[in-house]
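Posted in: Protein Modeling Q&A

I'm a second-year student putting together a small comparison for a lab meeting, and my supervisor asked me to include a predicted structure for Farnesyl pyrophosphate synthase. I've never done this before, so apologies if this is the wrong subforum. The sequence is pasted below exactly as I got it from our records. If anyone can share the structure token output, I'd also love a short note on what stands out.
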Amino acid sequence: MADGIISNGTHNKKALLSDSQLFEAKFDELVAELIERDLKDPGLVDALNRHREVLVYNVPGGKKNRGLSVIGSLRELLPPSQLTQDVVERALVVGWCIELLQAYFLVADDIMDASVTRRGQPCWFRKEGVGLDAINDSFFLESALYRLLRKYCRDQPYYVHLLEVFTETTFQTVLGQTLDLMTAPPGDVDLSRFSMEKYKTIVKYKTAYYSFYLPVAAAMYMAGITNEVEHSHAKEILLEMGEFFQIQDDFLDCFGDPAVTGKIGTDIQDNKCSWLVVKALEVMSPEQRAVLEACYGRKDDASVEKVKALYKSLQMQTLYHKYEEESYQRLQKLIARCAVTLPSTVFLNFANKIYKRNK
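Accepted answer (user: helix_wrangler)
Welcome! Here is the predicted structure, written out as tokens:
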């Protein structure tokens, strides 16, 4: 780690940087590790330069809550005396591995959804000269994370645990994506496929495992916590949190400001099984359902605006804010009940980052 870029818990007397600053500073070092120091074959120069562009364009642009949650959780799980510079460095690397996994999912997901923007810029596959080559670029992003895990963690007792939780989480996310794609095939609108039970299953597998359980589980393994009961309790809390997060995401896809969220919502056009449509189906009249069936999943602006007008007439914004408050209270009770041996701050810190967010 660069001189002066140090962690709390070390004995260096130089000014300390925040975890966010430490995390940001680590990215360029990891890019150099993957592109300049890892493979020396001169025949790979063009490919490695392309992969540098893939990394810089797709990995660092988000809020980084997932990656930062590794070091944030580890600080709650270990005493300061154990947070040596090496321990913090590895936590930062594992955090970036989660951001690489996220980038891998998003690059591929944007192709499947024919999305337009991501994080305030054109989706990677929409960049001139990229197109469907982005599929191979997504493979690179996934493989890169395992090279970093091997380099930085292979001599640690938790290495196999990390490999297992990353591969299992990837498998769970793929299952969720499969269910999402099967439930909402483009151009084949069938609202009878949508139910709250199916929606919650998609959310659990497609989002909650990798966005919420993975960062905390990684930190727990790094702290030497391998007890299945403790991981089960953490998972129960974090999957609930993941559901809360995804419902927020669905709401923002329709009602959020693209200038704030960084993406143009396409759930209505893409025939997505989102919380808004599932909840609307529960409360609407047969006449309103006929309007929804005629307009949902269509690409034209007029149809999209009719669906949004329908949501507004059903007071979906009010229903959402009611759900948000009830979910947060339920989450607080779940944390109080399940976080028995683990510090509740691990979960409360996460919850406070996402409650009432607007992007």
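A couple of things worth pointing out for your meeting: The longest helix spans residues 85-113. The first strand starts at residue 117 and ends at 118.
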